[in-house]
Specification:
By secondary structure, the protein is of the alpha/beta class. It is built from 13 helices and 17 strands.
């Protein structure tokens, strides 16, 4: 029997006693070792009290006042915040059925991923799945997603996003926008919010001056701003200078090392410059400086880089980490249900094995920092009083051995055992 299957059976047998309960019910996880990602320490053998869907109290205190509480002895177990994949795609394959997507959501949640950011897809699909999760119709991570934005040059000879428009006769939609200088940016952001997006994802086709205008306008409307590290023609340091919150893809930092101006059409840049880039001598210091200055977050998608034989990307992530850049864990992958574990675990392993992260650093990248990347850090990302009770309970200490992050005892989301 595979380990993942054994874990699911364990969840069902050992914690069935606190399945579903009302707003005022209380569950006490007694004697648990709590991984505190805020202060980067373990609080040993403490009691974690859940009331409704929130963490109500932490600490060894008299709990006899909770007359009807469910008490579960967690001696020897470790609690971490629910994991967050800050960059994946669940609505990009039009051949998938809703049932297929629901299976993916179940799979992610069963392995401790309680929140996800879909980095731009068909908002009609994403909004429906988000609603179904929020209402309890289906079990899965909470879903946050972006509206896709690019400049005209991006779409020259490029129709890779066409599947996001199935059933429409228009070339664009609120969740797939082409904008250029002179366009009404207020209308663009209103449309993005109307389709349920919590952010915009900027792909390419932006000069640095116009990029700043787009970022500022999105922020005015309360939208998170995510974008590629190179936006053609804007280079990585110029992208970071614009002040967007999350900047994606370590491999895209290679374009900082091209001395000539970049073309707005990214394919032309590959033709003109790619063979001239020395990937063994990449310098991203200007980018790291701007990221730190603007308190942005780097989303390296390192597993994607490594699978595509861009091993040099690991050095850039290591340098970013050493420079004090905040790094969030995301995979940019469509889930494969034939794998024992989601790709997020591969991403975290790479951070420790290739980039000099401690296990605590890696866990923070998929919890506290990832929550900040989604704009939900006031609600999620750490085990603190008042936050959502999204908790992964592990059988062993992940700080001694990162592989123990996979040794899941049970998963709690919104105060309920799944």
């Amino acid at each position: 029997m595979k380990q993942s299957v054994r874990n699911l059976l364990t969840v069902g047998v050992l914690l069935v006693s606190f399945a579903v309960y009302g707003e005022n019910d209380v569950t006490i996880l007694k004697n648990i070792n709590l991984v505190d990602v805020v202060h980067k320490q373990i609080i040993p053998k403490t009691d974690l009290i859940i009331k409704g869907n929130r963490i109500y109290q932490i600490g060894q205190k008299e709990d006899s006042v909770y007359q009807n509480a469910t008490r579960v002895d967690m001696s020897g177990k470790y609690a971490i915040p629910g994991l967050i994949d800050a960059h994946l795609h669940i609505a990009n394959d039009p051949k998938e059925s809703r049932a297929d997507r629901v299976k993916v959501l179940h799979y992610l949640l069963a392995h401790g991923i309680t929140s996800i950011r879909d980095a731009a897809g068909d908002a009609r699909i994403l909004a429906e799945l988000k609603r179904a999760v929020a209402t309890g119709e289906i079990q899965g991570p909470d879903i946050y997603y972006a509206a896709f934005i690019a400049g005209p040059a991006y779409f020259e000879g490029n129709d890779r996003e066409k599947d996001m428009l199935i059933g429409l006769t228009t070339p664009f939609a609120p969740w797939l926008q082409c904008i250029k200088p002179g366009d009404n940016l207020d209308s663009a952001m209103v449309a993005a919010k109307a389709c349920g997006a919590t952010g915009v994802k900027i792909y390419a086709g932006f000069e640095k001056e116009f990029l700043k205008q787009v970022v500022e306008k999105a922020q005015q409307y309360g939208l998170m701003v995510w974008g590629h590290a190179t936006l053609f023609p804007a280079k990585p340091s110029e992208v970071a200078e614009a002040g967007m919150k999350v900047i994606s893809h370590a491999y895209m930092l290679e374009w900082e090392n091209v001395k000539e101006p970049l073309d707005g059409n990214m394919f032309k840049n590959y033709e003109k410059f790619y063979d001239k880039i020395d990937h063994q001598k990449l310098n991203a210091e200007s980018f790291f400086k701007q990221v730190k200055l603007h308190q942005s977050i780097f989303d390296p998608t390192l597993y994607l880089c490594m699978v595509n034989q861009m091993e040099w990307s690991a050095n850039l992530v290591k340098e970013a980490h050493q420079a004090g850049v905040k790094i969030c864990a995301g995979t940019d992958y469509i889930s494969d249900l034939n794998r024992e574990l989601p790709f997020l675990f591969d991403e975290l392993d790479l951070y420790v094995e290739k980039c000099g992260f401690t296990p605590m650093d890696a866990i923070c990248s998929a919890t506290l920092i990832a929550a900040e990347a989604l704009g939900i850090d006031e609600q999620k990302g750490s085990l603190e009083v008042g936050k959502k009770a999204d908790i992964v309970i592990l059988n062993s200490n992940p700080l001694l051995d990162m592989k123990q992050l996979k040794n899941i005892h049970s998963v709690i989301k919104d105060g309920k055992n799944i």
